[in-house]
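Example record for the data management plan.
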Amino acid sequence: MDKFRMIFQFLQSNQESFMNGICGIMALASAQMYSAFDFNCPCLPGYNAVYSAGILLAPPLVLFLLGLVMNNNVSMLAEEWKRPLGRRAKDPAVLRYMFCSMAQRALIAPVVWVAVTLLDGKCFLCAFCTAVPVAALGNGSQAPGLPAPELARLLARVPCPEIYDGDWLLARDVVVRYLRCISQALGWSFVLLTTLLAFVVRSVRPCFTQAAFLKSKYWSHYIDIERKLFDDTCTEHARAFAKVCIQQFFEAVSHDLELGHAHGALATATAASTAHSPTDGTGEERDKLRGITDQGTMNRLLTSWHQCRPPLHLGQEEPLLGNGWVGGGPRAPRREVATYLSRV
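Corresponding structural encoding:
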């Protein structure tokens, strides 16, 4: 169990590298999926283009959504976008930075799928086999004598060698070579454009808006760390609260069993009074509860955290009674200092 905990902590501390690795694995998986996929063109006019468009667009969309689902920051982005304004303002630049960071990773696998599809050429051949120039590639003298529906039906069978019977009009190998050359040219152009776009996004953008980029990146990391720390604090509080409740329950039950069933009512009253005088271990756990020892107070605190986050201001001296603090009296001022340490 300790090994799994260490692995989980390592993944949390290296979340960005872990997500990059996951996206790379998904990109390789998309290429393997296409190579194992059995491409069957319907070889019918009107259906070839629809089938090819589905093969070219539907799997990348699925891979993009899977890339977003596997990213833990999706829920954080949705929570930050939909949370009430409260005492803390929301910065649209931070939300845009978070979405762009997730989208860049999630687009790796779809880009690989589209590039592999275009470089292979089967999808392009199925989609545009009815649009080849018959006069330039085949026997153009016989093409005008065919009706347009018959010519489209004949050319639609080019991707299916077992049923193609139009060699007298146009050789199948010529059409396949012609369309695959165009498809591969488009595939390499797509790879080049996406590479240039990735270079511009990753390198050129911070050079023009360095200050805004740094601020968006900082507050994006802050939201992520704040959420993790809040979850850890809630887990610690829930563990301490559950431990105190369980200890009080077993103390009351054991005391009731010692007194016997005949004095059940008296035993219950005594146990209740005993439960309010916890042992040393229970007292230590109570100290961890930070004064929140009932369900209603905890629910109000969680609701207040969602509705009005505390302002981002260290050294807040006034009591935040309207922001989730429980209690009516003034709080003693407390100094908080943020220090940045670095090794030279």
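Summary line stored alongside the record: The first helix runs from residue 2 to 13.
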